Amino acid sequence: MEEAIDKIARVLSRTARMAVLTGAGVSAESGIPTFRGKDGFWKDEDVTRLATLEGFLADPVKVWQWYDWRRGQVAAAEPNPGHYAIAGLEKMVAARGGSCTVITQNIDGLHTRAGSNAVLELHGNLSYARCLKGCRTELHRLPEGPLKEYPPPCPRCESILRPHIVWFGESLDPVIIEESYRVCAEAQVILVVGTSAQVYPAAGLPYVTKRAGGVVIEVNLERTELGYSADLSVYGRSGEVLPAVLSRVKEL
User: Fold this and answer.
1) What digits encode the pLDDT tens for the residues 43-64?
2) Are residues 25 and 106 in the same domain?
């Protein structure tokens, strides 16, 4: 592993344009469950009731209460060393006049709390809501405070609010996915961390960098399908691997 970390650090030390794609594995080290694992969110829950528009319209109170519980989990969690290392890499690249953008499938906001500035949230954010007519608001800005009423009303129109999350059967925000493709196409390196690389279109982003001639680096607990195409791979906890990479980059 030390040899792989050294190779990754040497690549990143020369990188001016970098993308980082993260998945649930990064936040799992902060105590936030993944979705599809044996202890994941969907283990005892019906996806069609909690993560589809149809389920929300059928029982908005149940859906809001479940997402309120999830917000409580996130509020009690803290960014882990992996989050902070990613933010540190962003700052190092920026310090030499480059750019580093984090593209995340996570909805917990932990990258931002760890200090990352350029973050594209593919699947939304638990701290926000949007109404059925499209108005978006931060939950702490609601007149009655966070979820004193189920479902909460939109403060701007007469519609009801829903979580600002991309549910099953819904498309990603076209602005965000277009920007993600642009970042990956221009990146010299994409660092892929804590994702199974199975859910598209996010799973296709590393290949955008690869086709453009960039380097694909994977950090995961175990090999994924992406591992067969990655230029460099390290299998271990991102909260241990990434701080080691950052430390080695600083030495170069």
Assistant:
1) 445 667 888 999 999 999 889 8
2) yes
Q: Which of 111, 123, 140, 164 is catalytic?
A: 123
- What is the C-alpha separation between 54 and 46, in angstroms, rounded? 12
Alpha-carbon span 54 to 169, nearest angstrom: 10
CB contact at 8 A, 246 and 88: yes
Summarised one tens digit per residue, pLDDT across range 59-100 is 998 898 888 888 888 888 999 999 999 999 999 999 999 999
Active site residue 83: no
Q: What is the pLDDT of residues 200-215, one digit of tens each?
A: 899 999 999 999 999 9
Q: Which residue has the tokens 């390196």?
A: 189
Query: What DSSP character marks residue 204?
Result: G
Give the residue numbers spanning the domain of 22.
1-32+79-123+172-252
**H-only helix segments in the chain:** 2-12, 24-28, 47-50, 53-58, 60-76, 81-95, 110-114, 174-186, 205-211, 238-251
3-state secondary structure of 192: strand
